[in-house]
Design brief:
Radius of gyration of chain B: 20 Å
Low-confidence stretches of chain B: none
Helix content of chain A: 25-40%
Distance between the termini of chain A: 112 Å
Largest sheet of chain A: 7 strands, mixed
Oligomer: heterodimer
CATH superfamily of the largest domain in chain A: DD-peptidase/beta-lactamase superfamily
CATH class of the largest domain in chain A: Alpha Beta
Strand order of the largest sheet of chain B: 1-2-3
Number of domains of chain B: 1
Strand content of chain B: under 5%
Largest sheet of chain B: 3 strands, antiparallel
Number of strands of chain A: 23
Distance between the termini of chain B: 15 Å
Number of helices of chain A: 19
Low-confidence stretches of chain A: none
Helix content of chain B: over 70%
Number of strands of chain B: 3
Mean pLDDT of chain B: 87
Order of helices and strands of chain B: HHHHEEEHHHHHHHHHH
CATH architecture of the largest domain in chain A: 3-Layer(aba) Sandwich
Shape of chain A: elongated
Number of helices of chain B: 14
Shape of chain B: globular
Strand content of chain A: 15-25%
Structural class of chain B: mainly alpha
Structural class of chain A: alpha+beta
C-alpha cells in the first residue's frame, strides 16, 4: 500500500477478515450444515397429506345399500391468517348461508389463533362452488374434506350398524400399532366397531408442495387409498324396517332369526336415534340429552337389555321335567288359582284357576300353578342346567360388541328357599335374559335342540372382488330326545292355535305358528291387579313373545319384548304375528 | 501492470456484480412481477449515465458544491416527515410520477462529500484531536437524527460507521478515542431505551431466533434455511423454494443474498463474496493511492460506504448480525441505492484517472 497513509493499512485486514468470516459462514451453512437446512426447507414446503379411504359400504342380504359414503366439505378458518374480522365476516356471509353475526361468533370463540375454527359443516354444492371461486381472496379459509356416512334408507337398525367418529386420543394410544393417527375415523359402536378392521380400508398418501400460507401449490406424488371391504348382512332390509315400525312408540326389542342357520334377519330396538346426527360434529348438547334420556335410546335392547324371561322359561321347566322323567305329559295337576308352599301363597295369573291341568294345557294356558309344582319336583339346579344348555344367561356370541350376558342364579352357592324355586319355575325372580338369547333359545326348540350361533355378517367383499363367506356355526346340540321336543312343540303350537291359547293373537291363516307368551314382572304386587293400565308405567309388566313359523318347517323365529307392555299375549304376540306374516308373504 | 488494467479492474468487478445481481433479480421477478426487473434496468441505465458523467467530469467540482449536496440531501430527509410515503410503518420514500426515491441513500453520499471536504482542509499526517472531531460529529448527527426517527436504524448505523472508519483511517488521538468510546457506550445504553419495540425484538431474536420462530426470529431462520438448503451447487435459477413459496421474506430487497445463496449455492455465494472483496480492495486502493487529499477522503468515504452496506447486509442475511434493513449494493431492488452506488463507482474511477494524469 501507499506510503501516504501508513496508518490506514489496518482497514485492509479488517476487510479481509470480515470477508473470510463470510466465506466461512457460507461454507458452514451450505456445505457443513447444508443437508440439515435442505431438510428444513423441505419441511417448510412439503406436506404429507393422508388420503382417507372410503369406508366399506354395508348392504342387506339382498344387496340393498344400508350405509354408504359421501364426502362432506367443511369450512374452517385459521384466525392467525385473518386480516380484519368484520370485513371478513361480511364478505363471507355473502357467500354462505350463514349470517355475519354467526361467523363473528365462531371467530371470537377461537381458543388459539393457530387452531382451525369450524365455520360451517357440510357445505352445500352451491356454497362450495362459491367459496372455491373466492378461496384466494380469503387466505384464512380452509376447506376440509371428510368422508361421511350416508344412510340412503334413513336410520336402518342404527343400534346394529353403530356409528363412526373421529378417533380419540385414548383410541390412538390403544391402536397405534394398527396405524391409526389423529384425524382418522373409526367405528365407535355396533357393526362399525365390530368390523372396523374390514371396513376401514387402507389410507393413501399425497406429497404436496405448499406455500408459506399452507396453500397447496402442486401434488408431487400420490398413493391411492384402498377402500374398505363391503359388508353384506343377513339382515333383510324390508323385514328390518317392518320390525322398526312395529316398535314405533314403544320401548322394546324385536329379533328375527333364520332357525336353519342362525342368520339374524332383523334386529330392532326402540326407542332409537338418528345416526346422521352422530360423527365428527355432533352437537354436544344433543349427545348429552341422548345419553341422559331415561328411555335410553342408545342402548341396543336386543342384546343389551336384560329382563326376566317370564313364562317363556316354562318351556325349559317342561323340557327338563320330561327329560328327567319327573312328569308324564298326561299327568294332571290341579290349579285352584293359587299355590301354597309352607306359609306362602303363590298366585296363578288366572284368578279363578285352571282346574285340572296337563302339560299341554299348562303350556298353552301358561298355568303358573302347574309349573310351580313341576319346578319343585325337578329343583332349581336342573332348571339352571337346562337353561344353560340353551345359552341363557351367557353370551350368544353374536358378532356385535357390547352383548350382555344376562344372569342365572346359582342355587348351590346362594341362600335358596323353596319359594325361590317356585318363582324361578315361572321365569321370575332373579333370572335375566336378553331378547337375543330368547330367539336363540326358541330357534333351538324349533331345531329339536340344534343351537346356532346368531350372526349378522354373511359376506365381505373387497373392491378387487375378493370375497369372504361367513358360514353358520352350530354351537352344539342339546341332549334332549326328539319325543320330548315333540311334546313341547305340540304345546307351543297350541299356544297359538288352541282356542284357549295365550298366544292366539299371533295366529295366522294358513300358517302354523308355534310360540310362547311371557309376562315378566317388574315388581311383585301384593294384591292381584285387575287393570294393569291403572299402574304407573314403570311398574307395568314386560311383555314377551317368542315364536317360530311355519311350525313344521320353520323359516323364521322371532322374539318380541315390549317393556312395560302388559301381557305377552296382548301386546307382544300381535307384533310377532305381523312380522311373521310379513316375512312369509314377501318371501318368494 | 498496465495502467488501464489497474484502473479498470474495478470495473470488471462492478460489471460482474451488476450482471449477477440483475440475473438474480430477474429470477425474483419471475414470481414477483416482470416490472421489478425492468424498473431496476432503468435505474441501472440512469445510474450508469450519472456514474459516467462523474467519471468524465472532475470530481473536484464536488468539493465546491459539497455543502449544497449535503444540505440538499438533509432537506430531502426533512421532507420525508410531511411528505414521505409510509410503507410497513416506516416513512423512507419520496414518491413522484410512479417512482420512489430514498433520500437516505443520497444523504450518505452527501455526508461522504462534506466530510471529505472538511478533512481535506486540515494539515495532513496529524492524528485527529477531539476538537477537530466536533464539526464532523455534528455533520453526522443532523442526518442521523432525521433518519433514525423515520425509523431507519440501518442508515443511521451507516452514517455513524462512515465517520468512524474515515476518522480511524486518518488516525485519532488516543484521548479522543477513549472519550468517544465512553460516550458511544453510554449512547448505546441510552439508545436501547429509545429503540422501537420492533427494533429491540430484532436484536433479541438475533441472539436466539428459535425463541419465537414464527415471530421476529422468522426472517433469520428462513434466511439461513434458504442459504443452507442451496448446498454446493444451489437449486438452480428460478427454483428456490424458500423464496418462491413465500417462506423467505423480502427476497428481492434486503434478503436478496439469501435468494442468491439458495439458487446459486455455495459456488455462487462464495464467488459473489470474492467479487465484493476484490471490489472493496480496489476501492480501498483508490483511497490509499489518491494524490490529493479530497480525492483520498472521498474514496475512503465511498469504500466505507460499500464496506458497511455489504457487511451489514450479508452479516444479517447469514445470521451473523441482527436484522437491520439495508440493501445489498448492485443486488437489492431499489433505484436510489443503485444510482448512488453507480455514482460512487464513477467517482472512484474519476479519482484513479486523476492519479494517473498527475502521478
Amino acid at each position: 500500500m501507499s506510503k501516504s497513509s501508513p496508518k490506514g493499512k489496518w482497514l485492509f485486514w479488517v476487510i479481509l477478515i470480515v470477508f473470510f468470516i463470510f466465506l466461512g459462514r457460507v461454507w458452514q451453512l451450505q456445505i457443513i450444515e447444508g443437508e440439515k437446512y435442505r431438510q428444513l426447507a423441505d419441511k417448510n414446503r412439503l406436506r404429507l397429506e393422508k388420503v382417507l379411504p372410503p369406508r366399506g359400504k354395508i348392504f342387506d342380504r339382498k344387496g340393498r345399500l344400508i350405509v354408504g359414503n359421501k364426502p362432506s366439505f367443511d369450512l374452517f378458518m385459521v384466525p392467525a391468517d385473518l386480516k380484519g374480522k368484520e370485513g371478513f365476516a361480511r364478505e363471507l356471509s355473502s357467500l354462505l348461508d350463514l349470517s355475519e353475526k354467526e361467523i363473528l361468533k365462531r371467530i371470537n370463540d377461537a381458543r388459539s389463533p393457530f387452531e382451525m375454527v369450524r365455520i360451517k359443516k357440510d357445505l352445500s354444492f352451491e356454497e362450495l362452488s362459491r367459496i372455491s371461486a373466492h378461496l384466494w381472496d380469503f387466505p384464512a379459509l380452509r376447506i376440509v374434506v371428510s368422508p361421511t356416512r350416508v344412510y340412503p334408507q334413513g336410520p336402518v337398525a342404527p343400534h346394529l350398524i353403530g356409528t363412526v367418529g373421529e378417533i380419540t386420543q385414548e383410541e390412538i394410544r390403544r391402536l397405534r400399532d394398527k396405524g391409526y393417527e389423529v384425524g382418522d375415523y373409526i367405528g365407535k359402536s355396533g357393526l362399525e366397531l365390530q368390523y372396523e378392521e374390514l371396513l376401514r380400508g387402507k389410507k393413501g398418501g399425497r406429497q404436496v408442495e405448499v406455500d408459506a400460507f399452507g396453500r397447496r401449490v402442486r401434488i408431487l406424488q400420490e398413493i391411492d387409498p384402498q377402500p374398505g371391504w363391503d359388508l353384506y348382512l343377513n339382515i333383510d332390509l324390508e323385514l328390518q324396517l317392518k320390525a322398526q315400525s312395529l316398535l314405533e312408540g314403544k320401548r322394546g326389542a324385536i329379533v328375527a332369526m333364520d332357525p336353519r342357520s342362525g342368520e339374524i334377519l332383523a334386529i330392532a330396538s326402540s326407542p332409537s336415534f338418528d345416526p346422521r346426527e352422530f360423527g365428527r360434529f355432533m352437537d354436544p348438547q344433543k349427545w348429552r340429552s341422548l345419553e341422559k334420556d331415561p328411555s335410553r335410546p342408545l342402548i341396543n335392547r336386543a342384546i343389551q337389555g336384560i329382563y326376566p324371561p317370564g313364562s317363556v322359561f316354562k318351556i325349559i321347566v317342561a323340557l327338563a321335567a320330561l327329560t328327567m322323567g319327573q312328569v308324564e305329559p298326561q299327568e294332571r295337576f290341579y290349579c285352584p288359582g293359587y299355590f301354597t308352599l309352607g306359609n306362602r301363597t303363590f298366585r296363578c295369573w288366572k284368578e279363578e284357576g285352571h282346574g285340572s291341568v296337563t302339560l299341554y294345557k299348562g303350556i298353552v294356558q301358561s298355568c303358573d300353578v302347574y309349573f310351580y309344582q313341576l319346578g319343585l319336583r325337578i329343583g332349581p339346579k336342573a332348571m339352571i342346567e337346562f337353561a344353560k344348555w340353551f345359552g341363557l344367561g351367557d353370551f350368544n356370541g353374536i358378532d356385535l360388541p357390547g352383548e350382555k350376558k344376562g344372569f342365572l342364579p346359582s342355587p348351590q352357592r346362594e341362600k335358596w328357599f323353596g319359594g325361590d324355586t317356585v318363582v324361578m319355575a315361572i321365569g321370575q325372580g332373579r333370572l335375566a335374559v336378553t331378547p337375543l338369547q330368547l330367539v336363540t333359545f326358541i330357534t333351538a326348540i324349533a331345531n329339536d335342540g340344534r343351537l346356532y350361533r346368531p350372526f349378522l355378517l354373511r359376506e365381505a367383499k373387497e373392491a378387487s372382488g375378493k370375497i369372504i363367506h361367513f358360514n353358520p356355526q352350530l354351537k352344539g346340540e342339546v341332549p334332549i330326545s326328539q319325543e320330548v321336543f315333540q311334546v313341547v312343540k305340540t304345546a307351543l303350537e297350541g299356544v297359538v292355535e288352541d282356542p284357549q291359547g295365550t298366544g292366539r293373537a299371533s295366529r295366522l291363516e294358513g300358517v302354523k305358528v308355534a310360540g310362547k307368551t311371557g309376562t315378566a314382572q317388574v315388581r311383585g304386587m301384593p294384591q292381584r291387579v285387575k287393570d294393569p293400565l291403572s299402574l304407573p308405567y314403570e311398574h307395568r309388566d314386560h311383555a314377551w313373545f317368542v315364536a317360530y313359523a311355519d311350525a313344521d318347517h320353520p323359516s323364521i323365529a322371532v322374539s318380541v319384548l315390549v317393556e312395560h307392555g302388559g301381557t305377552g299375549g296382548g301386546t307382544a304376540a300381535p307384533l310377532a304375528r305381523e312380522l311373521i306374516k310379513y316375512w312369509l308373504n314377501t318371501r318368494p | 501492470m498496465k495502467w488501464w488494467l489497474r484502473d479498470f479492474s474495478g470495473l470488471i468487478y462492478l460489471l460482474s456484480l451488476l450482471a449477477i445481481g440483475l440475473i438474480n433479480l430477474w429470477s425474483a421477478s419471475t414470481t414477483i412481477g416482470v416490472s421489478l426487473f425492468t424498473k431496476q434496468l432503468i435505474w441501472v441505465v440512469i445510474g450508469s449515465a450519472l456514474g459516467l458523467w462523474c467519471y468524465l467530469a472532475d470530481y473536484k467540482q464536488f468539493e465546491n458544491i459539497a455543502y449544497y449536496l449535503y444540505f440538499g440531501a438533509v432537506f430531502l430527509l426533512g421532507l420525508l416527515y410531511p411528505l414521505g410515503v409510509e410503507i410497513e410503518g416506516a416513512k423512507r420514500w419520496l414518491g413522484f410520477a410512479g417512482f420512489y426515491i430514498q433520500p437516505s441513500e443520497f444523504a450518505k453520499l452527501g455526508l461522504i462529500v462534506v466530510l471529505a471536504r472538511y478533512f481535506s482542509k486540515r494539515p495532513v499526517q496529524e492524528d485527529l484531536s477531539l476538537s477537530e472531531l466536533g464539526l464532523p460529529i455534528l455533520m453526522v448527527l443532523l442526518p442521523f437524527c432525521l433518519v433514525v426517527f423515520q425509523p431507519d436504524l440501518g442508515t443511521g448505523l451507516v452514517l455513524v460507521g462512515i465517520l468512524g472508519i474515515v476518522t480511524l483511517w486518518i488516525g485519532v488521538e488516543k484521548r479522543a478515542i477513549l472519550f468517544l468510546g465512553v460516550l458511544a457506550s453510554l449512547g448505546c445504553v441510552g439508545g436501547w431505551f429509545l429503540l422501537k419495540d420492533y427494533q429491540k425484538q430484532r436484536i433479541i431474536s438475533f441472539l436466539d431466533p428459535w425463541k419465537d420462530p414464527l415471530g421476529t426470529g422468522y426472517h433469520l431462520i428462513q434466511s439461513k434455511i434458504a442459504i443452507g438448503s442451496g448446498g454446493l451447487w444451489g437449486k438452480g435459477l428460478g427454483l428456490g423454494t424458500q423464496a418462491r413459496l413465500g417462506f423467505l421474506p423480502e427476497y428481492h430487497t434486503d434478503f436478496v443474498f439469501a435468494l442468491l445463496g439458495e439458487e446459486w449455492g455455495f459456488v455462487g455465494a462464495a464467488f459473489v463474496i470474492l467479487l465484493f472483496l476484490g471490489f472493496l480492495f480496489w476501492a480501498f486502493e483508490t483511497a490509499q493511492k489518491a494524490k490529493d487529499a479530497f480525492g483520498r477522503f472521498l474514496a475512503m468515504g465511498i469504500t466505507s460506504l460499500f464496506f458497511l452496506h455489504v457487511t451489514i447486509n450479508m452479516g444479517m442475511t447469514l445470521g451473523l448480525l441482527p436484522v437491520v434493513g439495508l440493501p445489498l449494493p448492485f443486488f437489492s431492488y431499489g433505484g436510489s441505492c443503485m444510482v448512488v452506488s453507480l455514482i460512487a463507482v464513477g467517482l472512484l474511477l474519476s479519482i484513479r484517472k486523476k492519479r494517473r494524469f498527475f502521478g
